[in-house]
Amino acid sequence: MEASAIIFYCIAAFILGAGILAVTTRKIFRSAIWLLFSLVGIAALYFWLQVEFIAAVQIIVYVGGIVVLIIFSIFLTQQSGKEMAKPSGKHVLFSLLAVLFGLALIYNLISEYGFAEQASRPFQVAVGEIGMQMLSTTQHGFILPFEAVSMLLLAAMVGCIVIAMKNKSGNLEAAEPPAGKLMIHSDFTSSTTEKEA
Amino acid sequence: MNSVPLAHILFVSTALFCIGMYGLFTRRNIITMLMSIELMLNSVNINFVAFNKYLWPEKLDGIFFTLFIITIAAAEAAVAIAIIINLYRSHNSIDVEDATELKY
């Protein structure tokens, strides 16, 4: 067995072990930390697969963004030292059965299917090439999904602000739905003028 | 160059997907259910990258799918956490068993 194969199996065991602990630990904060380890392991797997750009994006977005967001929401919503309620035995049994049957089915499918691997050609991912293809308007360019995703991110940002914003009771402005974006601004200015006055 | 067959990487991602599915089935807390969903999305990303590397190494389509999935997962997590915080304000709990207004 080669060294890189050994490294792969170590990374795989790390990812799966951390994942199992993340879904079975009963303390929610530990669960978030195990999820963090699992995501770092997946970034290591991307490094092993020689897609360094995806690994960097994985670390920046997941480890630096999403897990921090999840930990913040844990701190905002509950006592992190408290243990969560144990799932009922019937629940666990049937979930395990469903998961194991699904795993066995997919395992069977993958091991039966012979993939025509083409190991001869090297796989090179240059970051410049990713950028060129991402923004190219030719047939194999990805400019349209890029723009769609940018609109989606803008919509998600505005949506998050509107959903998580506290609406003051008895405020007529907050009840007006069409002025969603202006309302934030006018709220802000009116509160500052109130402070000044 | 490829010392590990493609099937083994697919086994890892399948196992990770099933772990996420188990978490989604057994957990009753919305934040931990969201974490299980993140695990499942990550297993799909591993599949995309592995297929791209082993089967079509001259193209970059799997890389782009992975990038877009990561972006959409980030947006989804942000919106979900905004909803969770709003739910906590109105119900004082983020257990799915407590949010039953739309059930009946």
Detailed description of the structure:
- The complex is a heterodimer of chains A (197) and B (104).
- Chain A has helices at 3-24, 28-48, 52-77, 89-112, 127-134, 143-164, 180-196.
- In chain A, helix 2 (28-48) packs antiparallel against helix 3.
- Mean pLDDT of chain A is 82; it is low at 171-186.
- Among the domains of chain A are: 1-81, Four Helix Bundle (Hemerythrin (Met), subunit A) (Up-down Bundle), CATH 1.20.120.1200; 145-197.
- Chain A is extended.
- Chain A has seven helices and no strands.
- The termini of chain A are far apart.
- Chain A is mostly helical and 197 residues long.
- Chain B is mostly helical.
- Chain B has one domain (6-91): Helix Hairpins (Orthogonal Bundle).
- Chain B is built from three helices and no strands.
- The longest helix of chain B is centred in the C-terminal third of the chain and has 31 residues, at 61-91.
- Chain B is elongated, with a radius of gyration of 18 Å.
- The termini of chain B are far apart.
- The mean pLDDT of chain B is 89.
- Chains A and B meet through helix 1, helix 2, helix 3, helix 4 and helix 5 of A and helix 1, helix 2 and helix 3 of B.
Give a brief description.
By secondary structure, chain A is mostly helical. Helix content of chain A is about 70%, strand content about 0%. The longest helix of chain A is centred in the N-terminal third of the chain and has 26 residues, at about 50-75.
